């Protein structure tokens, strides 16, 4: 692949599509606000010199919104693809990587929170997943490898630039594009659904996606004969922050799937199967409103009034992994809970699921919060963070106070 390039601060000119692109001043793009770029050109289509790389993506002129279908281990909801990233290609199938070592960050979550984008972070925690459970490191990698190579995200492309705001713009734009590309729904509409027995052809998959994005194809990725990636290609008119993304054909031959016999396997032991509405991928409840702890759902954890992760299948609190799907079953005046590990209960004071639970605990709900022994207080020794799980204890005897609430799926 092409080697890394220095920041646009140090370059005098770049080659794009055979044309020389001179760097210079130009108008400023305000991240998150309407662009001030006048008459912006479409990237990868210029035939003359473009001077302002704050209004024209170069050399990475084609942007790829890439998605995963992870099945073993499964990541994300059972009926949604997940985000891989947003990658700038050089309009010819090659790309630059790791373009600015001064903007490599190890605190992506903290950066996003510092700009008040908690909804963005919550969405990423569900749909931008690392198969090994280390989402934070995955996000850091995607920004440093790909985000730092997008010319319109350079700090000097902002008016009154606030440090790291371009990082938030990178993740926000990637999520916005992903929401507009519901691969699972589009494939299912054409009868292409996960199966352990069916196989599909490249032509069938391309046709299903072309029905929603006419005139262009995508890049399909397969591993061991099974579909596991889709790359959607765009050229951009203007900046990544505020420009127009125009669907485009792939800028190189990259698909790795066979012409036929393609498997599309179900996610095994993955997340939930939330329903979706419209063209996005936002989960909506399938239980009656106001009926917590009924049917299937997540056990979300609130700490200091903020949602922070959830309970996973063994009963521990985790902020980076896929939420376990629990089943609530009516029992007397309350209900029992079970996960893929088995029945759940309070064992030696800790919420536990699996072989260590001899008798399922009869839980109750108090103001929509999980309660054991009539007490909705829970606690942990420390706040869960990154890949570190925490045991959750009934009562408020430990240092981190928690509430556990139900999200129907």
From TrEMBL:
Claim: Signal is one of the keywords in the record: yes
GO cellular component: extracellular region; vacuolar lumen
Xref: Gene3D superfamilies: Ribonuclease T2-like
Active site: 84, 142, 146
GO biological process, one term: RNA catabolic process
Family of this protein: Belongs to the RNase T2 family.
Name of this chain's protein: Ribonuclease T2-like
């Amino acid at each position: 692949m092409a080697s890394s390039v220095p920041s646009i601060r140090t370059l005098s000119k770049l080659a794009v599509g055979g044309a020389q692109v001179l760097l210079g001043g130009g108008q400023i793009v305000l991240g998150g606000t309407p662009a001030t770029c006048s008459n912006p050109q479409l990237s990868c289509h210029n035939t003359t010199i473009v001077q302002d790389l704050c209004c024209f993506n170069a050399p990475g002129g084609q942007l790829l919104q890439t998605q995963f279908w992870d099945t073993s281990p499964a990541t994300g909801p059972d009926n949604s693809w997940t985000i891989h990233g947003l990658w700038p290609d050089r309009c010819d199938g090659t790309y630059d990587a790791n373009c600015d070592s001064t903007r490599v960050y190890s605190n992506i979550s903290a950066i996003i929170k510092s700009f008040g984008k908690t909804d963005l972070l919550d969405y990423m925690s569900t749909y931008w997943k690392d198969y090994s459970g280390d989402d934070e490191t995955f996000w850091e990698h995607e920004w440093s490898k790909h985000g730092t190579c997008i010319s319109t995200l350079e700090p000097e492309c902002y008016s009154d630039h606030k440090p790291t705001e371009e990082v938030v713009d990178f993740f926000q734009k990637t999520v916005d594009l992903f929401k507009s590309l519901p691969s699972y729904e589009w494939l299912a509409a054409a009868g292409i659904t996960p199966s352990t027995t069916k196989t599909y052809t490249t032509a069938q998959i391309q046709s299903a996606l072309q029905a929603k994005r006419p005139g262009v194809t995508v890049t399909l990725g397969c591993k061991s004969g099974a579909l596991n990636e889709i790359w959607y290609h765009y050229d951009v008119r203007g900046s990544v922050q505020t420009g127009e993304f125009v669907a485009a054909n792939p800028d190189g031959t990259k698909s790795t799937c066979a012409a036929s016999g393609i498997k599309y396997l179900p996610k095994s032991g993955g997340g939930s199967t939330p329903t979706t509405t419209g063209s996005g991928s936002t989960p909506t409840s399938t239980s009656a409103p106001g009926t917590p702890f009924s049917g299937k759902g997540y056990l979300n954890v609130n700490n200091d009034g903020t949602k922070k992760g959830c309970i996973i299948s063994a009963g521990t609190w985790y902020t980076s992994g896929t939420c376990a799907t629990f089943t609530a079953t009516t029992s007397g005046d309350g209900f029992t809970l079970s996960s893929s590990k088995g029945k759940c209960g309070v064992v030696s004071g800790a919420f536990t699921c699996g072989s260590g639970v001899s008798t399922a605990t009869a839980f109750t709900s108090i103001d929509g919060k999980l309660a054991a022994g009539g007490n909705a207080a829970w606690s942990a020794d420390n706040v869960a963070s990154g890949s570190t799980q925490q045991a959750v204890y009934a009562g408020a005897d430990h240092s981190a106070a928690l509430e556990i609430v139900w999200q129907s799926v």
